[in-house]
Amino acid sequence: MKKNYTIPIEQNKIDQLYNLWLNNGYDSINDIDIVEEHLNGIEKNISEIKLYTFETPTFIESSCITIYDKNLPVLAGLGEVCTEINSRGNGFAGKLCSIARDDFFSKNSAEAIFLGTINPKAQKIYENLGWVKIPRSKIMFNSKKGESFEDFINNYYTKTENSDIFINNGSPKFRISLIPYFFSQISNHNIDLNAYIIGNNYSSMCLSLYNKFDQITKNKGQWFVMTDHINKIYSTSSFKTISKDILRLDGTYKKGYEKYFIELLKNNLTAIDLLDSQRIICEVSNNDKDKIEIFRELGFRESYNNEIEGYKREENFKILEIK
User: Fold this and answer.
1) Given pLDDT bands bounded at 50, 70 and 90, which one contains residue 244?
2) How far apart, in Å, do the first and last CA atoms of the chain sit?
3) Is residue 52 domain-shared with residue 180, that is, in the same domain?
4) CA distances (Å), 308 to each of 281, 300, 312, in order?
């Protein structure tokens, strides 16, 4: 039987989902992006999470999930696509993804939906439903208007150029907008060590991209974004304690919008002053001359004390410190 739900859902249904995922393709709980706390409704005031299934009265045969900002349903992510081994070959996954896509695209404001896959067979299914692979990544993109990803990004970042830009604390409402932000500029210079985003290693992430930033908060750090009124991101920043009395500041920016990155970092330094850390550092790739110069403009200088007790520094990175 085909069914759909709006999160939160009952615990017995969550248990059935975990039984499906962990026994039919997911190696561990760490591979699941929309986890139990989400399914229980922890984000119900922010995120619209919808579950689509084929199921019997006792177990779920196939699933997929969409998630988007409840107040700004412009972009969505699709994930947790899984079919029970003995139920494969019936076209369940394709049918559910088609329903989920059409459901989201039925919204007037909807523009695009993203998903990630490393499975060639699954990729063929998604391609038949209109998804196309973003170059140099394992992420796929589906436009309501049938735009290419390149045309979508060009329009996405130019149509509101004159909008006011704001500093925001990182939160789930930026979960999906992180995706076009990073994938519009897959680069070895897109680095935030606090989120453990190094170069283009994020090219295999979709919904899990947000989880990397959420982990900063769970480790008693903070992250921030510069966005416009529809949550379009122009730069990110983060800070967290990495060793006793040592705090690391880091972040990324969209090329051409360096001024927003500098403004964001200045705001972070003001907040950090209240934390009374003895040392504030950043680690920047030796090859990223522009980012090194930005931190130098903010008063950071190369540290002569490059060894930090209990911390293994990144190779080919230089440590800068502000006095």
Assistant:
1) confident
2) 64
3) no
4) 11, 17, 7
Examine the domain organization and report whether 171 and 313 are in the same domain. Answer: yes
Say what the pLDDT of residue 179 is.
Answer: 97
Q: pLDDT confidence of 304, banded at 50, 70, 90? A: low
Query: Residue 229 sits in a domain of what CATH number?
Result: 3.40.630.30
Pair 244, 306 in one domain: yes
Rounded Cα–Cα distance for residues 240 and 247 (Å): 5
Rounded CA-CA distance 215/218 in Å is 5
Residues β-bridged to residue 322: 280, 300
Neighbours of 167 (CB within 10 A): 16
pTM more than 0.85:
yes
| In contact, 75 and 113? CB cutoff 8 Å | yes
* Residue 101: per-residue pLDDT: 98
Phi (first) and psi of residue 209, to 5 degrees: -60, -45
Together in a domain, 128 and 180:
no
Domain boundary pick from 155, 183, 209: 155
| Residue 194 belongs to domain spanning | 160-322
Q: DSSP letter string over 30-41? A: GG-SS-HHHHTT
- Counting the structural domains of the chain, the total is 2
CB atoms under 10 Å from CB of 265, counted, come to 24
Give the pLDDT of residue 200.
Answer: 83
Q: List beta partners, residue 192.
A: 197
Same-domain status, 252 and 236: yes
Residues 244 and 172 in one domain: yes
- The neighbour count for residue 255, using CB atoms within 10 Å, is 11
Residue 283, beta-bridge partner list: 319
Specify whether the CB–CB gap between 143 and 102 falls below 8 A. no
The answer on 114 and 75 residing in a single domain is yes
Closest-CA residue to 189 (of 300, 311, 294)? 294
